[in-house]
Write a structure and sequence with these properties.
single chain, alpha+beta, 5-stranded antiparallel sheet, 4-stranded mixed sheet, 25 helices
């Protein structure tokens, strides 16, 4: 296989095939809550709202992340449509960019073999490959940090002044992109790495101030290209909230992500197999003479900076330490490249042993997951997981072949390593792992996804196109926004679960999804259980509001309810309003059978009410119109119309026509029914009236 290195096209072909494999299967399974769906939803809301400056979630400011990654997702959502494939496309693309970058950097400073080995070892390790097939931010973010540091390494080793300017400029631009991708932690990692390098080298090559200024100006221009527009459009509060959130990650565990201090060491060692095992001997090795730009030292420093920093950080999430994957892959590659004939036998056997453990574990898991009895016993202390894994998920019986495929890969790589066919071994390892992941994408992952979130996702999708409120209770989910195709709503209380479950003026049907361990809604008489599947329950509540559309009539009946004072509010421009009904004393005998309104021509409303009193008494109806943006004083009032003395049990229809003025901010239309006893203002009666509270909203064509 040494002929590969005599022609540049063969390594490029190998890397190109590996890069293309990152795209296979990425659209076959739903995005996973939280992060994947979180980021895809931010991109989707940019498209829906047309606002590409402000990052939003539920169409409210979302200050946790800057926008660059979402811009990438938006581009591919525009090209391929909104969905899983587009959401994961940026990482698959940057996976290929990363491998080609490793090849060309390795080739420039060493040779083609070093470049190809670096690409193969990175692509043949578990977590790096997994992240290239995901929709999280880190692969893009980590690439920018690495390239920025690489340009700074080139700056340190540049002889000509023009090259120093060039590389300091490039470095500043790219670290600015890193900050626009995930935030200030990218800048922090860069500065800490450079600072530690300067300390180790006793500040011998401290950059001249003019180069620092070039780097700083380029960095600031990149980040301000977004922040200036964001501040102009949305004010400084969003930027302030963003900075506060980033600081909070260091001080306390966010969203319950608290782990032991050694968490990231274990994650990197096991998750980055096999490169983590081959890098062990290089972690404390001295720089070699052939390392002309001292990449070995730089990568060692970067690795330890990331590990130590995120060991200190209280919030510990598995992908926070993913920046270690790049320097770790270099150290593993560098060790193998320098010791091809001297690789310690124990490392080769360790590669075999760990690989066999992983492949056997996969085959065992494939046999356990379909077995409901075993899963029920294993998950007996976790009711939600138990309910989830007791679903009827169809297994084909061939899923274990994925583990067998990886076992064959490991054995093949092991035999080639023993024969000191290093490049062949890691080529087999990389392509074998890639095929293994593709196999899992079409077999295991859809089933796991069905267990852990499938019923909820399916329910979210079932309300697409329906004008309803959809929320979750007792757990956090971005899936209910992304998979229901959430649209902007003017109602500010749309995320207020208390209002959705119990409010008396809810204007749309409500669906609430909970986990089976959440029993709160079981005792809520206003919520009806409509479905239970897996670990989820779905509840429904019918809208209290009536929505009136042009040339349509909507009527709300009050069946045999004695009323003294009835108000129905109609609000133009889609704002929510409320109806109040005050119960009179027991002696009052006014009844209302219903109210209705019909829109004519978009600017005239006919208001109709039916009412009667048992005793002869004066029954009146009044209509008033207010501009809610102004004072409470009505702008138009129709005097009370007396129906006259009414006979017992005789229903009477009263109709008034209302013309809507041309200019208004927000109109409020009221209908009053009352009799000569007067309007009851007793606060106790008013509160009691909320039992039958009804609201009506007008949506006009105007």
């Amino acid at each position: 296989m040494d002929t590969i290195f005599k022609d540049n096209k063969y390594p490029l072909l190998i890397i190109g095939l590996l890069s293309l494999s990152f795209f296979v299967g990425i659209g076959h399974v739903h995005l996973f809550d939280w992060d994947e769906i979180n980021f895809a939803e931010c991109a989707r809301e940019m498209i829906v709202s047309g606002d590409y400056v402000k990052v939003q979630m539920d169409f409210q400011p979302f200050w946790e992340k800057p926008p660059f990654f979402f811009w990438l997702q938006v581009i591919f959502m525009k090209l391929f449509g909104i969905g899983e494939f587009s959401a994961r496309f940026p990482n698959a693309l940057f996976g290929g960019i990363t491998l080609f970058s490793f090849y060309f950097i390795g080739k420039k400073h060493f040779d083609r073999k070093m470049g190809l080995l670096w690409s193969l070892i990175y692509a043949g390790s578990i977590f790096p490959l997994f992240y290239f097939k995901s929709g999280i931010i880190d692969p893009v973010f980590n690439y920018f940090i690495f390239i920025s540091i690489y340009f700074f390494i080139r700056f340190f080793n540049a002889d000509e002044v023009k090259n120093k300017y060039k590389f300091s400029l490039y470095s500043g631009i790219v670290i600015g992109l890193a900050m626009l991708t995930k935030g200030p932690v990218g800048l922090l990692l860069f500065l800490l790495t450079v600072f530690v390098y300067l300390v180790v080298t006793k500040f011998k090559n401290f950059p001249h101030i003019k180069y620092i200024l070039v780097w700083l100006i380029s960095f600031v221009l990149v980040i301000m290209s977004w922040w200036i527009f964001d501040i102009i459009n949305n004010g400084f509060d969003v930027v302030k909230d963003f900075i506060d959130y980033q600081i909070s990650l260091f001080g306390k565990p966010v969203a319950g992500h608290k782990q032991p201090w050694y968490y990231h060491f274990v994650v990197v060692l096991l998750g980055c197999f096999p490169m983590s095992f081959f890098a062990l001997k290089q972690l404390f090795a001295k720089s070699e003479e052939t390392d002309v730009v001292n990449l070995n030292r730089w990568m060692n420093i970067l690795l330890w900076v990331v590990l130590i920093l995120f060991t200190i950080v209280t919030t510990k999430i598995i992908h926070y330490s993913s920046m270690t994957y790049i320097p770790l892959s270099f150290l593993a590659t560098y060790y193998i490249y320098r010791n091809q004939e001297k690789i310690a036998p124990w490392m080769i056997y360790l590669y075999l042993g760990m690989g066999l453990i992983i492949s056997i574990a996969v085959m065992v898991i494939m046999n356990i997951l379909p077995n409901k009895e075993i899963m029920s016993e294993l998950l007996s202390k976790d009711q939600f997981s138990q309910d989830s894994f007791l679903q009827d998920v169809q297994w084909g019986g061939y899923e274990f072949l994925g583990g067998l495929l990886y076992m064959i890969t490991i054995i093949g790589g092991f035999i080639l390593l023993l024969k000191r066919k290093i490049t062949e071994a890691f080529t087999v390892n990389a392509f074998g792992l890639s095929l293994f992941f593709i196999f899992l994408s079409y077999t295991l992952l859809p089933k796991v996804e069905q267990y852990v979130q499938g019923p909820a996702i399916s329910f979210y999708e079932s309300v697409i196109g329906k004008d309803v409120y959809l929320h979750v209770d007792g757990y956090k989910s971005y899936g209910r926004s992304f998979y229901s195709n959430l649209q902007p709503m003017k109602e500010k209380r749309r995320t207020d679960k208390g209002w959705l479950m119990n409010g008396e003026d809810v204007d749309k049907d409500v669906y609430i999804v909970t986990k089976t361990i959440n029993t709160k809604l079981e005792n809520n008489p206003k919520m009806t259980l409509v479905k239970q599947e897996g670990g989820f329950r779905m509840y429904y509540r019918k809208a209290v509001l009536i929505t009136l559309e042009d040339d349509k009539v909507a009527t709300q009946n009050f069946e045999s309810k004695a009323l003294n004072f009835l108000t129905a509010e109609y609000v133009k421009s889609g704002k929510t309003s409320q109806h109040t009904a005050n119960y009179p004393n027991k002696d009052s005998q006014l009844y209302s059978n219903g109210i209705s309104a019909i829109v004519k021509g978009g600017d005239v409303i006919e208001c109709t009410g039916w009412a009667f009193i048992k005793e002869k008494n004066d029954l009146s109806m009044a209509v008033e119109l207010r501009d809610r943006s102004q004072e409470e004083k009505p702008i138009v009032v129709w005097a009370s119309e007396s129906v006259g003395d009414q006979e017992t049990n005789q229903w009477n229809k009263v109709t008034k026509s209302v013309k809507i003025p041309d200019k208004f901010s927000e109109l409020q239309l009221k209908i009053y029914f009352y009799h000569s006893d007067g309007i009851v203002n007793d606060s106790t009666a008013y509160k009691e009236a909320w039992v039958d509270d009804v609201s009506v909203r007008l949506i006009s064509s105007k």
